[in-house]
Amino acid sequence: MYKHRIVAVAAALCALVVISAAGAPVAMAEGGSACIAMELTTGAVIEEDNADAELPMASTTKIMTALLVCEDCDTDEVVCVPGEAAGVEGSSIYLKKGEEIDVRDLLYGLMLRSGNDAATALAIIHSGSVEKFVAGMNARAKQLGADNTNFCNPSGLPDAGHYTTARDLCRIACAAMKNELFRKVVGTRIWKGRFRTYSNKNKLLYSYEGATGVKTGYTVNAGRCLVSSAKRDGMEVVCVVLNHRDMYSDSADMLDRAFENYALERLTTDRVFICGGRACSLKTARELVVKRGAQLRFECVPGSGEDGSCGRLNIFAENDLIFAENLYSIV
Q1: Which of 65, 112, 156, 271 has minimal CB crowding within 10 Å?
Q2: Catalytic residue among 59, 91, 251, 309
Q3: For position 18, what pLDDT does the model report?
């Protein structure tokens, strides 16, 4: 697959080693950048550069914060703002201690306006304390295969042990975009709630055709970070850029290349393949990302399996195996 190469030699020369909250050394590339584009449903990587470098991610952290809230909280619940949330440094929705607001308005304030105070409030409402919520963030990250990520807070404020990789963050964002409520929130341009009204800071929602989300971020040490997503012709792509000065332009270019060069191939269960003289099909529908114009070659290999399969379907694109799945008799 095509890979966008932006080799940051200078960043490699100034790489640092810091100590994480858990006491383990964590490689941090000060000033380093990274990017990745991934198809949402399959997780197929379309383009990447330095995607496994451990870097700070600023307010894109809030993708995980919002995912936990969407999964676990009653967003209609009216709550009182905890004192710890009032006056949190950085971007804010200007919450006041004891103020009444519903969880939904806090959630929209978190994702549309990047409120650090909203992040703290939601963490405490969800788990009882920021510390317990952060533990939940890290546990959920591990469940999603984001093994090179460590959260120290729910907002993305600078901390030596707070880091991710472009690949991990993209996995987290793909999972979040499969949550109906999360998707609705991050795709909203203007929100008018019971207690608050917000406009979305994510400029791609207003300028990029098919844009669906997701979150901006910036701190001095993390640089400009953006997780974006867009859907065209049935294929949805999630893009992550970390420490990119032109984060909107770079993200749009990556999304353009993805849609121009790749498409989603759908293999339905009613598609019949002849394998060893028997009519067979896949047990479940599958999707795969293929390069536009690539010649696909389908190969059916007979053979019985313990699961009742009667063979295996292999799909090649220009001699590269891109798909392999068991086939099952339909007669």
Answers
A1: 271
A2: 59
A3: 34
**Contact between residue 108 and residue 196 where contact means Cβ atoms under 8 Å apart:** yes
Place of tokens 């619940």: 77
pLDDT in tens, 21-33: 333 333 344 559 9
Q: Hey, what are 184's tokens?
A: 């609705």
The one catalytic residue among 3, 20, 33, 62: 62
Summarize pLDDT for 112-166 with one digit per residue, the tens: 999 999 999 999 999 999 999 999 999 999 999 999 999 999 999 999 999 999 9
Going by C-alpha positions, the residue among 243, 312, 238, 304 that lies closest to residue 282 is 312
Catalytic position from the list 33, 91, 114, 127: 114
Q: pTM of the entire structure?
A: 0.87
| Residue 62 known to be catalytic | yes
Half-sphere exposure (Cβ direction) of 74: Cα atoms closer than 13 Å: 4
Rounded CA separation 177/186 (Å): 9
As a whole number of angstroms, the distance between CA 106 and CA 94 comes to 11
231 assigned to active site = no
**Buried b / exposed e across 163-192, counting CB within 10 Å, b at 16+?**
bbbbbbbbbbbbbbbeeebbbebbbbeebe
Catalytic site residue 92?
Answer: no
